[in-house]
């Protein structure tokens, strides 16, 4: 039988990963299923939507729904920091590829120059950089500690 030690997970992590992000990911599911064209234009303003590509958006919606479920259900059901790190590192890898996609669309000059960003880029970067940095910090053990003996939270 394995022993599970109780750990303290900092409040900002719990708020972001258990509440804000699952809701945002669920919104992404809805958007990709029912409004794929605005979603595409928010990421690539010069792209042309075709209904022939709808299966791709349905697959992205599945990805978003999985993220929502992992955070809202799996992370809430465990106090294992190892599981949290596994899930959050996987999501961090997705963040990196998401940002790479933005880099490809915007080019280096646009990607690194906030003065040229549309409101869509601001939302994308805020919702990717901020949580991505917190995911990296969590995976490095920052803000994660054992609960003192005698306390169960």
What descriptive keywords fit this protein?
153 residues; 69% helix
- What is the mean predicted local confidence, pLDDT? 91
What is the total tally of β strands?
A: 2
Tell me the radius of gyration.
Answer: 18 Å
The geometry reads as globular
Protein structure class: mainly alpha
Helix content: 55-70%
Residue windows where pLDDT falls under 50 for at least 5 positions: none
Main-sheet strand order equals 1-2
- Fraction of residues in β-strands: under 5%
Oligomer class: single chain
Q: Compute the number of helices.
A: 5
Instruction: Compute the separation of the termini in Å.
Output: 22 Å
Order of helices and strands: EHHHHHE
The biggest sheet amounts to: 2 strands, antiparallel
What does the secondary structure layout of this molecule look like, with pairings?
Layout: E1 7-9, H1 11-34, H2 36-43, H3 54-74, H4 81-111, H5 119-139, E2 144-146
Antiparallel strand pairs: 1-2
Textual characterization of the structure:
The two termini are 22 Å apart. It contains 5 helices and 2 strands, in the order E-H-H-H-H-H-E. The protein has 153 residues and is mainly α.
Quick summary:
With 153 residues, the chain is mostly helical. It has helices spanning 11-34, 36-43, 54-74, 81-111, 119-139; strands spanning 7-9, 144-146.
């Amino acid at each position: 039988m394995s022993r599970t030690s109780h750990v303290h997970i900092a409040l900002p992590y719990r708020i972001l990963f258990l509440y804000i992000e699952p809701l945002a990911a669920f919104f992404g599911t809805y958007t990709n299923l029912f409004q794929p064209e605005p979603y595409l234009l928010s990421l690539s303003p010069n792209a042309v939507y075709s209904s022939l590509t709808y299966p791709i958006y349905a697959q992205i919606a599945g990805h978003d729904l999985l993220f929502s479920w992992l955070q809202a259900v799996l992370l809430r059901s465990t106090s294992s920091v190892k599981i949290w790190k596994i899930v959050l590192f996987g999501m961090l890898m997705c963040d990196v590829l998401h940002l790479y996609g933005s880099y490809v669309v915007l080019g280096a000059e646009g990607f690194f120059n906030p003065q040229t960003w549309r409101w869509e880029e601001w939302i994308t970067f805020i919702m990717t950089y901020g949580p991505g940095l917190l995911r990296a910090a969590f995976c490095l053990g920052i803000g994660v500690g054992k609960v003192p003996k005698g306390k169960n939270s």
